[in-house]
Amino acid sequence: MYDRLIRFDLTDVSKLYGSLAESWSVGPDGKTYTFKLRPNIKFQSGNPITAADAVYSLQRAVILNKSPGFILTQFGFNKDNVKDRIKAADAHTLIVVTEKAVAPSFFYYCMTATVASIVDSKEVMKHEKAGDFGNDWLKTNSAGGGPYKLVSWKANEGYTQEANPIWFRGKPSNRRVVVRHVGEPASQQLLLEKGDADYARNLTKDQLDSVRKNSDVKVEFGRKGSILYLGLNQKNPNLGKPEVREALKWLTDYDGIEANIVKSAYVPHQSFLPQGFLGALSDRPYKYDVAKAKELLAKAGLANGFSVTMDTRNNSPIIDIAQALQAQWAKAGVKLEIIPGDGKQTLTKYRARTHDIYIGQWGPDYQDPHTNAETFAMNVDNTENAKSKTLAWRNTWDIPAMTKKTEALVLEQDAKKRADGYLEIQREHQKVSPFVIMFQQIEVTAHRKNVDGFIIGPSFDNNFYYNIKKN
Amino acid sequence: MKKLLSPAFAKDSTRLVLSVALTFVGLLLVTFLIGRVVPIDPLLAAVGDRAPAEVYERVRVELGLDKPLWQQFWIYMVKVVQGDFGRSVLTSNVVLDDILRVFPATLELATLATLLGVSLGVPFGVIAAVNQGRWPDQLARVIGLLGYSVPVFWLGLMGLLLFYAKLGWVAGPGRVSVAFDDYVTPITGVILFDSAVQGEWEAFGDAFRHLILPAGVLGYFSLAYISRMTRSFMIEQLRQEYIVTARVKGLSEARVIWRHALGNVMVPLITVIALSYGNLLEGTVLTETVFAWPGLGLYITNSLLSADMNAVLGGTIMVGIVFIGINLLSDVLYRFVDPRAK
Q1: Residues of A with Cβ-Cβ distance to B307 under 8 angstroms
Q2: Are residues B137 and B73 in the same domain?
Q3: pLDDT band at B182 (very low <50, low <70, confident <90, very high)
Q4: Which residue ranges form the domains of chain A, and what is each CATH number?
Q5: pLDDT for A362-375, tens place per residue?
Q6: Contact status of A342 with chain B (Cβ, < 8 Å)
Q7: What are the CA-CA distances from residue B183 to residues A415, B106, B179, B192 (Å)?
Q8: pTM passes above 0.95
Q9: Quick check: is B87 in a domain?
Q10: How far away is chain B from the Cα of A54, in angstroms, using its nearest Cα?
Q11: Rounded to the nearest 5°, which phi and psi values hold at B72?
Q12: What interface predicted TM-score (ipTM) does this complex get?
């Protein structure tokens, strides 16, 4: 529904392209960014899209500062300085001045995030209530310049969108998109096979196998950005030993778990940057090797293994993976006790770092490698009351040297060097970190054969409907 | 009608309302405390896992979670009395709006299911009682047992598989077809009612085709319960002396059974029906999940799973109100059917 100034190419993340902006550049000081907007483009309301709208939208996101606001505020904007730092030079020129000279690619990728979407300032201001920047009204309405506009929104139930006939890339061929929340995958399968639904997006592994046999249905998949990993709390004296950390990486049967549990939902992946990110490492050094793990455990003085607990959310596939690990680790004498809980329970414990092992998923916040690097490979202050509580902090992993290296990459002006830097950090991370990174999520979608063109991007806001055609 | 206006009734009602109000405060307190002592950080639900410390702290103060517990409860009570349940963090809507949206879906389903359950369950029960030990009784017993013991969830899926996917007699999951989405302007939110009032008969038909299967499944469940209870009430009545007297007087067997005996079991029967209706109105999570039915049960469960305490408390109060309403209704009905009151 909303467009941004720039976007990244879903097939090659290193390529950026202009969406509402036709050109963009950074000044010699490394802090002043200039975006030129396309002339003669309009919002769904018919209002022209101008630099003033871009200014309003970005200032709005900074001042409201909801959870994703940090993606912008990390460049030094706050409600007091944002009026000076984000300005329009003329009707089609936007000037943004960041606090520090960061890597331009970092800033650009952040500008592709949802929070940098451009709203129709005139329309939004009409519906402002008590300085909320129209936030309340926008929950059930849209004021953007993207391919679709919102017709209805019912939380937890579904929504309906209608094509925006004056979208600047041309009216989408598919007039109406109705998205329904159907909680039971078996019901989704029935709706799809009966033809009452064109797409079913939450089928389970067995159901996918079954719909593949239906000649009216096609199955396709896209890579998502989420990573499934184990966090080993370094407060636990056993997990604190480097040999034990490595041993657990050898004790995990990545391929077995994929084949038996998470097929069509995850693929094996062992570094903290998911495939599809700048500088993502695709090496998979670890495989299931009990002998090697035993050797490492013996070196750590734990030849007979040890006992450890894992906080596990009580849903599929997490609990199933935990049970598989329990069996696999037992082969080397590691007795894993599973503590089941619901999502919020396990997360509360994890955030307080009172767990031994946490199993969970991490999704990147924006498309730049820094989003994951920051959380997996930075821990500025390892004390209990630290300001920044990254995943490294949650696992009590004190890494001053790696933190410095990761921080430096944010400032690296050369995109190629930056990517190489991330590769290097990931290789080291893979070896020493208390994270057993196991899988990257994929999304598998089944659809009717006569309907095609849904684009599955790496995150929820890169799934696009505008290409869908129905024959 | 006179009975309704009598002082005795007014006194009874006051007592009822008072006891209900007390129960209500107790209910609020218990739910509130549970919400606060569970090992879940309610702020996590509100700000998400990634929020920086400043945002976290700001929202904590905004939500009043920095105040002492008793003060939080008091603030909550005052707001609830004014009809303000706060905002749901899951949907970021006002909880009352959410509930007013999901409850009609449940109401529609539960009402139709109960109508089905009563209109079939009562005759089944009566016939079984009259033919005690013979084949109609055995048949009713098998039907009842199945309804009791087969999980509604499974029954729903099998129903969909047979009547929707194979035979195509009914529509699939959801309240209406995609084509009828947002077709009828909501007045009450009960689609059958809204579409009938607006003369949108096509939408009415579509909604009905969607409703019939889930209502049938739930109706079957309540039929099982109601018919078993009717049977045992009736057997007890048929042993009474007045039945013999009536027969000796030469009344027709039908009149003896359907009027005299059944008339006398009406009071306990209404209690049973009201209870089963109340249970359905709480929302039936599993059925709602299978049929993608956006009702109260699903709403409360989803909120519970995301530690969305405002929504959970709001939903719980709604359930409380439903039970009070049903209690009052059956109280009124007793006065009409109780022969002693005539």
Answers
A1: 344
A2: no
A3: confident
A4: 6-117 (3.90.76.10), 148-222+446-470 (3.40.190.10), 223-442 (3.10.105.10)
A5: 999 889 999 999 99
A6: yes
A7: 52, 20, 8, 12
A8: no
A9: no
A10: 24
A11: -60, -40
A12: 0.78
